[in-house]
Amino acid sequence: MTTPRNNTRRSYGIVGGLGPLASADVFFKLMQAMAARGGIADADVVFEQHPFRGSGSASVAAATTERKLYVFDMIRDFEKRGVGAVVLPCFLSHTFLDELRANTALPIVDMMEALKHHVRQTHPQARRIGVLTSDATRSSGLFERYFPEASFEVRYPRTVQGRDLVTEAVYGEDGIKRGNLGGRPLQLLTEAARDLAAQEVDLILPGLTEVALVAHAVTPLAVPLVDTNRVYAQYVADSQGEAAAKPFKVGVVGGVGPAATVDFMQKIVRNTPAARDQDHIKVHVEQNPQIPDRTDNLVGHGQDPTIALYATCKKLEDGGADLIAIPCNTAHAYVERIQSSLSIPIVNMLTVTVQSIRERYPELKQVGLLATSGTLGSGVYQRALEEQGLQQLAPSPAAQERVMEAIYGREGVKAGHTQGRCQDDLRAGLDDLVRQGAEVVILGCTELPLLLPFAELALEDGKRIALVDPTDTLARRCVEFAGAAG
């Protein structure tokens, strides 16, 4: 198993544009905090800002689809650029933080966790928290989730003749969003803050980054007004923002062959203990039927599939997969060639299959193998079996021809057939192995379980022969890895 690449240099991507002035303020204060800690030379900071049509209007000051997609696209761009963590200076975007985290591998530094940490460290006696935020953030209950009722009481400014003073100060025609950092917007914020002071709050937290931008100018007040932009920046610089655990993701090299890929996916689902959709494993399938035929290359002069297999694995790696499954037995003849160039492990279907046989049948000496001629010729199963003290039994040349016909023939399984002649041809290979003394047979081509979907078969003499499905074994092992990862 390989280990992921390790990059100790810190890097951050700041999502700008939702509040152009305020996000720039967070960027500036982050650089100040890093400089104060002597780490400004050890971090890469990307400040990305594009026009967002909802950034200056109170009517769209909500967690709209446009806002969600804007933030997600920005994070996706950071992923491609190799950024290590996301700085999201927008309270409204934190109302859908769980949605973002579920769909990105990048950690997003939680601004609300930063505030909660600050309050506990700096104002440990504070119980009544005043918040200057928009009506949209207020109605979402964001602050109540982080400052729960059992320990805190969250209060907001009261409306004045039906007017929300904070929203008007930020989103009004002459508001802070339009570049006015003094005058009437400051007067409205001061009035709202004094109303909170009159409600006897212990401290005031801006719940809009634009409010924090001018927090220093809202004076005089009888209670502290926190610069939440600076708090967030310092939290990022201190690296106290822990990454949420990302869902485990299985990457699948699909198309080798297509029907076998579908069969593998069904077995992933069937073997996953789940009570609802969300309990299932995250899977990324890169369906690439154009990967050159592995058997043609191994037994003849067909095109080498190494680059195509590697390119598909790299796409899965780049897509955030934690491991790779290749539901194709013959393709495992190429695994050793490409594994060392990947930073995530390929789960070797052959190895885990043979290990499971040894565990189930500790006294077994011989194992029959039904597979393509390429798999047999490569010796990959033979080596795996020998490592477990097992001897491989292969069909006779004549029987092997019928096995290949069952797989590649005009009426074979790769042509979409699962009954009739293909089953007869495969059964001929199985009978040959039984005559050689096989009691356990590996269905060593991922299409073969489509022809023999049984755990065992009864023979004419009353004996039973066990059929081992490597696809199912691989699916079970991937589920185990996902479960172990939590």
Automatic annotation (TrEMBL):
InterPro entries with a match to the protein in the record: Asp/Glu/hydantoin_racemase, Asp/Glu_race, Asp/Glu_racemase_AS_1, Asp/Glu_racemase_AS_2, Asp_race
Protein name: Aspartate racemase
Protein family according to the UniProt entry: Belongs to the aspartate/glutamate racemases family.
Annotated keywords: Isomerase
GO molecular function: amino-acid racemase activity
Organism of this sequence: Herbaspirillum robiniae
